[in-house]
């Protein structure tokens, strides 16, 4: 009885100096951690963060797992009440979890007044309120995809589980995950979700995952059409919802057999170990680089000065391979781009009939590495002319799975950014003509005649110089050179031979 009276007395005494402050955070735009949502902070002394209103015990300052918030009505608004000293200043931040690294990027501040106060909800990691979800109801949404390519390149095995996670970026009320099931005995997997809401204006961001031994692996995907600010979204699939209406049944099909189409089949990295020592031959077909530069583009070095402006530079500067796949060359995943890589002979590729190269001078460059038994079948790398980081932008790397029974992997330069390399078709692996006019029409007058031959001769002997379009049209045999052989072929064409 005495203890109860004392507690009441202390509460009344403290109430004169403390105000009850309720903090609220809106987690609508977040995937809430399994550990819950917490708050941490402190006063100017950094010694405590107020008192527990139930026990009156001091709450430790800046401790990520001390003060948990609750969401009793499941509206994604988490809250907690704390006794704070009146007319005092506090710094605080919310935590999506209960450890450092999961906290908001910046501190928040609050000055306690004379009265109790319930603070308005704030959006996690933002100074602004969370944007309201403006969705429309639809009857159902079906995700369907074909895993034949993933199975063929050893990235998925029958028996693995396939998931789709969707609603990224506020395109759904909350992010959710659903399991796709195999349809019959084939390689098509699908799932249908009934009665949902979607944000028409935002479209739908989603991605496929596989589960092996209870571990989740994200598909290898890059949205080549992405032009937003959040680069994380560039690694998600996207479906435009602008034309859909209420109560529609929506089907999203990702079954195109393509390397570049936005609706292409999923691919996954194989994280299984090789199992025994293995020599792997890596090949890269450099023709996409030749043709792209030949069409007038520049391959910019994003980390240096090795910009490629001429097809002949590929021959002159050479080609290097970089990244985790090259670790066994010199014990480094990533060798510094530029002069350092260019002087690392162990990562240089060859087109001279050596080092596993089958045909010298065929524009296919080759390198070989010996992997130990614990190396994974899935490997990541990037290519560079002259040692420069000039294949594509940041974060775009090749990912290939090794086939133990046939450890020869053929890649194509620039396939990680096919929209830029528009002089090459990465599905047929053939060049795309970007010449403005007829092949052989050097003067661009719409016909092939002796005048074209005269112009080419003058170009060869240095009396005149062809424009880029003229060069493109004059290279009759597409060997990246305007020379006497092109004249012979044009003459044969004029003569009907």
In short:
The protein has 497 residues and is α+β, with helices and mostly antiparallel strands.
Verbal overview:
With 497 residues, the chain is α+β, with helices and mostly antiparallel strands. The chain folds into 4 domains: 2-123, Immunoglobulin-like (Sandwich), CATH 2.60.40; 136-254, Immunoglobulin-like, CATH 2.60.40.10; 278-431, Immunoglobulin-like; 450-494, no CATH class. Helices cover 14% and strands 30% of the residues. It contains 9 helices and 27 strands. The protein has helices spanning 2-15, 148-152, 287-294, 311-317, 327-330, 339-342, 450-461, 468-474, 484-494; strands spanning 18-26, 37-42, 48-51, 58-60, 67-68, 77-85, 89-96, 108-111, 117-118, 122-123, 136-146, 161-168, 176-182, 188-198, 204-212, 215-218, 237-239, 249-254, 278-285, 319-322, 348-349, 364-371, 378-385, 398-401, 408-412, 424-425, 430-431. The strands form 7 sheets. Strands 11, 12, 13, 14, 15, 16, 17 and 18 form an 8-stranded mixed beta sheet that branches. A hairpin with a 7-residue loop joins strand 12 (161-168) and strand 13. Helix 7 packs antiparallel against helix 9 (484-494). The model is unreliable at 1-13 (pLDDT under 50).
